[in-house]
Amino acid sequence: MPLARRIGLVNTMVFTHLPSNFLLMLVPLMPTFGGAAAVLWLRHLISQMDVPTRQSYVNAVVSAAERSAANGVTGTARQLGTALAPTLAGLMTPALLLAGGPFLVAGGLKALYDLALWRSFRRVRPPEERN
Predict the structure, then answer these.
(1) Cα-Cα-Cα-Cα dihedral sign, residues 19, 21, 23, 25
(2) How far apart are CA 46 and CA 17, in angstroms?
(3) Which residue of 53, 109, 118, 120 is most buried, as measured by CB atoms within 10 A?
(4) Cα gap 125→131, rounded to integer Å
(5) pTM for this structure?
(6) String of b and e for 18-28 (b: at least 16 CB within 10 Å)?
(7) Residue 64 Cα distances to 44, 59, 130, angstroms
(8) Dihedral sign of CA atoms 121, 123, 127, 129 in order
(9) In 10 A of CB 79, how many CB atoms?
(10) Residue (of 94, 85, 114, 131) closest to 18 by Cα position
């Protein structure tokens, strides 16, 4: 990915995912269904850009013997979040008194995750970025 070569894998993961999270938070704030659908569509266009860079980063910084396990853990954690999200959103909606509450909470938590990831790994460079 040209962007990853230019700014690095971790920066690409975070800087492409953060706008996606903010777009998610905008969905319930849109005044019309069309606006909400457009924002959600834009979000989906960029929301998975971090996947190949994440896989590349994990494979670059983990030893060959640990790659399979590391990819399994990161993939499983991602799938668990996807599987549990609808249930949590259903439980959360009445408590927040907002139908759009889960969008705001999910976008905010995902943004915090991205910032924590960037803070934790911005100095852990794969071999091809060390120069």
Answers:
(1) negative
(2) 7
(3) 53
(4) 10
(5) 0.77
(6) bebbebbbbbb
(7) 32, 8, 19
(8) positive
(9) 10
(10) 114
pLDDT at 91 over 80: no
Burial status of residue 9 (CB atoms within 10 A of its CB: 0-12, 13-18, 19 or more): buried
Q: Rounded to whole angstroms, how far apart are CA atoms 117 and 85?
A: 20
Tokens for 110?
A: 């995902």
CB atoms near residue 53 (< 10 Å) = 21
pLDDT of residue 81: 75
Q: Of 41, 47, 60, 29, whose CA–CA distance to 114 is shortest?
A: 47
Between the alpha carbon of residue 103 and those of residues 5, 79, 81, 118, the distances in Å are: 32, 18, 14, 22
Which runs of consecutive H residues, i.e. helices, occur in the chain? 2-7, 9-26, 33-46, 50-61, 67-96, 101-121
Both structure tokens of 63: 């030893």
Given the structure tokens 């790994």, which residue do they identify?
121
Q: What would the two tokens of residue 12 be?
A: 């690409």
pLDDT of residue 96: 63
